[in-house]
Design brief:
420 residues; mainly alpha; three-stranded antiparallel β-sheet; 11 strands; 50% helix; RNA binding; (wild Malaysian banana) hypothetical protein
């Protein structure tokens, strides 16, 4: 059957010159696979998937400074790490691009610096204030982080998750790098760390106590606020008639299945509920599909998770922007703006704005410096030439008069079928 399908597709799509028929089949299958992985682009939601590579690099530099004594490090040490950041060039030039974020200064050389002084860098005053604000927000958000972690463990089949796998999604849920050391010891009655095999990558976090107050999904909480039965919400326009009809059939065919229910029978409605709840627990209400697939066994997700998501465009939006397949919870966004922002998201947005402001300031200074060099070389003459301006005005006035005269001739010719 599959061979017949490939043969039909091969007959419909002509081969390019110089390519034999059998060599064309893998490319066709690849195209079909890509079509099964993404949806039609949503111009409103696509900006929500934008990734600023500069912001990612600066965030790594920020973490490097936080781990350094006195929040100060040598430019030489940053230069050594440039390849791990996938960057080339001089580290000092990168720091100078963001004067609002980083300051450079001379300081004592490190133990391997050969003595004397060398160039160091640290946070600017504004950046340091935002970093302190971020750290205070993290401390204040620890109870929310613990609840988020508990709900994730309650979603899993065995009430435990592998730490290595969970690290892949820790950014999505706002967990810090040291969340195991920060959260687990403070809640010994809820969590514990186990390692049943003794291997380093087999460490797991286990839930010790089930909390019925946390076993309420985002769909159920919204239904309680509305005073209705729990059901999914369609976030597509009213003009999508056929899609909305299928969505209503899915919604009304069987009652809503809570992802926290004891009934672990595999069904499409429960799988949709699990993905919906995972995205609701994340800070940005989106996640990489490939990373979610790592938890198929723990969360009881289907083998072809992408097909499940594509069958429900009213709830999820699937995009392959930057060649990273991402699923977004539609109802969490108003256009490209996240509706309910976590305090951690707010402070990270401030950091991003400051980094962007620093880049604009650097580009402005560089533009002015280049203009000054061109003026010295005589390549730019900023004095206005009055004679040329007067000639241009006269030429414009003459053309305007000619155009008006020709327009009058055409008008009267049409009106009287003769020239005036």
């Amino acid at each position: 059957m599959a061979t017949t399908r490939v043969a039909v597709l091969h007959s419909l799509i002509p081969n390019p010159p110089g390519v034999a028929g059998p060599d064309r089949v893998p490319e066709i299958l690849l195209l079909l696979r890509r079509r099964l992985w993404s949806m039609k682009k949503d111009a409103l939601l696509e900006p929500a998937l934008s990734r600023n590579r500069r912001w990612i690099v600066n965030n790594q530099i920020k973490n490097l400074l936080l781990r350094s004594p006195g929040r100060t490090a040598t430019v030489r040490s940053l230069q050594k790490r440039f390849k791990t950041f996938d960057l080339q060039g001089r580290a000092l030039n990168w720091l100078r691009k963001y004067p609002c974020c980083f300051d450079t200064l001379s300081g004592p050389a490190g133990p391997d610096g050969g003595g004397g002084e060398e160039l160091r860098f640290t946070f600017s005053k504004r950046m340091a204030a935002l970093v302190d604000e971020e750290e205070s927000v993290k401390e204040a958000s620890e109870p929310a982080m613990a609840r988020r972690l508990a709900k994730l463990l309650m979603l899993s089949r065995d009430r435990r998750l592998n730490v290595v796998k969970l690290n892949e999604l820790k950014r999505n849920f706002g967990f810090p790098d040291d969340y195991v050391l920060r959260l687990i010891p403070k809640h010994p009655e809820i969590f514990r760390v186990i390692n049943r095999t003794g291997r380093q990558n087999a460490m797991e976090i286990e839930l010790l106590r089930w909390d019925p107050n946390l076993a309420i999904s985002a769909v159920e909480a919204a239904a309680i606020d509305r005073g209705t039965e729990p059901r999914y919400v369609c976030s597509l326009p009213e003009t999508w008639f056929k899609t909305r009809e299928k969505f209503d059939e899915f919604n009304d065919a069987t009652p809503y299945v809570s992802p926290y229910s004891e009934d672990r029978t595999e069904s499409e409605k429960r799988a949709v509920g699990v993905v919906h709840e995972i995205l609701s627990l994340s800070l940005w209400k989106k996640a990489s599909i490939l990373k979610l697939e790592h938890f198929k066994r723990e969360f009881g997700l289907p083998v072809r998770l992408n097909l499940l998501l594509l069958r429900h465009p009213c709830i999820f939006y699937v995009s392959n922007r930057y060649k990273i397949y991402t699923v977004v919870l539609r109802e969490a966004y108003n256009g490209s703006e996240l509706i309910d922002k976590d305090p951690l998201v707010v402070v990270k947005d401030k950091l991003g704005e400051l980094m962007q402001e620093g880049l604009h300031e650097y580009n402005r200074r560089r533009h002015l410096a280049n203009l000054g060099k061109k003026r010295k070389r005589g390549e730019i003459d900023l004095t206005p030439k009055k004679e040329e301006d007067d000639e241009n005005e006269e030429e414009a006035s003459r053309l305007d008069t000619v155009e008006k005269r020709e327009e009058r001739i055409r008008f009267y010719k049409v009106l009287f079928d003769e020239k005036p």
